[in-house]
Amino acid sequence: MSMLAPARHSDPAVFGRVAVLMGGSSSEREVSLDSGAGVLAALRARGIDAHAVDGIPALAKALAGGEFDRVFNILHGQHGGGEDGVVQGLMEALGMPYTGSGVLGSALAMDKIRTKQVWLSLGLPTPAYVRLGRGDPGSGPGQAVHAAACELGLPVIVKPSQEGSSVGISRVFDDAGLDAAVALAACYPGELLMEKMVEGDELTVGILDIGGTPRALPSIRIVPKGEWYDYEAKYVSDETQYICPGLEGEDEDALGALALRAFAAAGCRGWGRVDAMRDRDSGALFLLEVNTAPGMTSHSLVPKAAAQLGVDYEELCWRILETTL
């Protein structure tokens, strides 16, 4: 039985004709197609007139033709993905209701560096970092990278500032590994980010708007079989453990409150997911990023957290779509 307040609507006709926006042309296309297939099946199982739309150009054409009444956006990533504010701007211009964050929240959360700048300005905890420019002048980017690692102190994480799903990320424990890590991250558009590695528990908190009020779902502590929660552990491995709730008592309450503050600070709305780390020695919490269109695959985290409250996958999709009404 669901531990949330009852859904506001029970008649699927209230949603009209729904576009499930998936696929696209970002580096996360395959994950988005998997998420979209699940959402589409769930909405149809609840009697909703839902239809798959692959990518932003196809959506623009369909909306121009008046084919849909609202959009369930399950695109992931940027540059043809639906998390960077571009498709949100299109839908705002057309007055089309859609799931997830608006233009500002989507664009900001997609940029990890600028999200961290906002959090730090509000006193919210996030790992120390250095922005790595492409082709820094002076002694060359290679030396700038080694100087940044020296400033932060090894070990560090090197990653693209504007990718998701652990794409292009490296964990670097010694100076010799820095150049290869930067070369991998540089395969993707945008700035590069080096941040101090927090060693400890990897945690995530789903956020869902219930009746106009954002609510933190039970946290999840992620225990991968390997050394860390990489792409393989997220989407392929069946050996990753998900402990929900991830923390207990006051610690769980503190994490949920921090996630809600981080979500609001980034200008996000509707639903999403906030990722964090808890330092193994001090117990301190550190914010990593906000996902404004989290995965909805069989391995995904928001459905696991909702299930802890008695909300199954179909009900979760209905609740997310209700945020557009």
TrEMBL record:
Compartments, record wording: Cytoplasm
Signal peptide as annotated in the record: none
Keyword tRNA processing: no
Biological pathway: Cell wall biogenesis; peptidoglycan biosynthesis
Record's keyword annotation contains Protease: no
Entry-linked InterPro entries: ATP-grasp (IPR011761), ATP_grasp_subdomain_1 (IPR013815), D-Ala_lig_Van_CS (IPR000291), D_ala_D_ala (IPR005905), Dala_Dala_lig_C (IPR011095), PreATP-grasp_dom_sf (IPR016185)
UniProt keyword terms in alphabetical order: ATP-binding, Cell shape, Cell wall biogenesis/degradation, Cytoplasm, Ligase, Nucleotide-binding, Peptidoglycan synthesis
Catalytic activity: 2 D-alanine + ATP = D-alanyl-D-alanine + ADP + phosphate + H(+)
Cofactor(s) the protein needs: Mg(2+); Mn(2+)
Any one GO molecular function term: D-alanine-D-alanine ligase activity
HAMAP family associated with the record: Dala_Dala_lig (MF_00047)
Functional summary from the UniProt entry: Cell wall formation.
Identification of the protein by name: D-alanine--D-alanine ligase
Organism phylogeny: Bacteria, Pseudomonadati, Pseudomonadota, Gammaproteobacteria, Lysobacterales
Name of the gene this protein is made from: ddl
